[in-house]
Design goal:
Structural class: mainly beta
Keywords: Kinase, Transferase
Distance between the termini: 24 Å
Protein name: NAD+ kinase
InterPro entries: ATP-NAD_kinase_PpnK-typ_C (IPR017437), NAD/diacylglycerol_kinase_sf (IPR016064)
GO molecular function: NAD+ kinase activity
Strand content: over 45%
Number of domains: 2
CATH class of the largest domain: Mainly Beta
Radius of gyration: 19 Å
Mean pLDDT: 92
CATH topology of the largest domain: Tumour Suppressor Smad4
Low-confidence stretches: none
Pfam families: NAD_kinase_C (PF20143)
Number of strands: 15
Largest sheet: 11 strands, antiparallel
Order of helices and strands: EHEEHEHEEEEEHEEEEEE
CATH superfamily of the largest domain: Probable inorganic polyphosphate/atp-NAD kinase, domain 2
Oligomer: single chain
């Protein structure tokens, strides 16, 4: 098996010791990424081969460094499964401005400022609320910002979690959307930023809508017998 290691040359030696053939991402049949940033960089492109994340917060889809050699040996023996996760396009005014694999946020750029947001699923309005922001997460990303804001952890294939961030009302809802999601800034009391996978993309004006659609998938290799990070 040809394996590419992204983000850590020392771990490449570990993979080589497990019996894999080291190669680059373009010719690999498995990509090992170290850290969330490296994973996001590879996964956004929707690679045709599975990824094995190391040292991330992806629960059962991430491994600790000290079990990587055993995990690669297990994969070489034909064990484990590839689980599909969505890749999102992020569109404003008909133009795709980013791709995301974990989460998409609209958030006020200044402290102690809240704005009003609208959430729409397909053509159906789900609700309006005032908050510091709103986050929509893929199942893989629901262990991050969305969970910290009070959202559920989702299993693959269940949809997107949509969660207000520090809402003004204590009775605010969270949602699980089965399809496309549109987030709109209805009114702002300060600048609102679009943040995708932890990186600020641009500012969003009042009445601008951000549409999220599943346009691709990436497979993550899961090796249950090894255990997660």
């Amino acid at each position: 098996m040809n394996v590419a290691v992204v983000g850590d040359d020392a771990l490449a030696e570990t993979v080589d010791a497990a019996g894999a053939t080291l190669t680059d991402v373009e010719t690999a049949s498995l990509v090992v990424t170290v850290g969330e940033e490296q994973f996001v960089d590879v996964a956004r492109g929707g690679p045709a081969v599975p990824i094995l994340p190391v040292e991330t917060e992806f629960g059962p889809f991430s491994l600790a460094r000290d079990v990587v050699e055993a995990a690669v040996e297990t994969i070489l023996d034909g064990e484990g499964t590839a689980v599909s996760h969505p890749v999102l396009s992020v569109t404003i005014d008909g133009t795709t401005v980013a791709r995301g694999v974990l989460d998409v946020m609209l958030v006020t750029s200044e402290p102690a400022r809240i704005s009003e947001y609208e959430v729409t699923f397909g053509a159906e309005r789900a609700g309006n609320f005032r908050a510091d922001g709103v986050v929509a997460s893929t199942p893989l990303g629901t262990r991050g910002y969305a969970h910290a804001a009070g959202g559920p952890i989702l299993e693959p294939g269940t949809g997107l979690a949509v969660v207000p961030i520090s809402p003004f009302s204590t009775q605010s809802e969270t949602w699980v959307a089965p399809g496309d999601v549109t987030l709109t800034v209805v009114r702002d009391d300060g600048p609102v930023a679009l943040v995708v996978d932890g990186r600020t993309v641009q500012s969003v004006d009042p009445h601008q809508s951000v549409r999220l659609s599943v346009v691709d998938h990436v497979d993550l290799w899961r090796v249950p017998s090894i255990g997660s990070r």
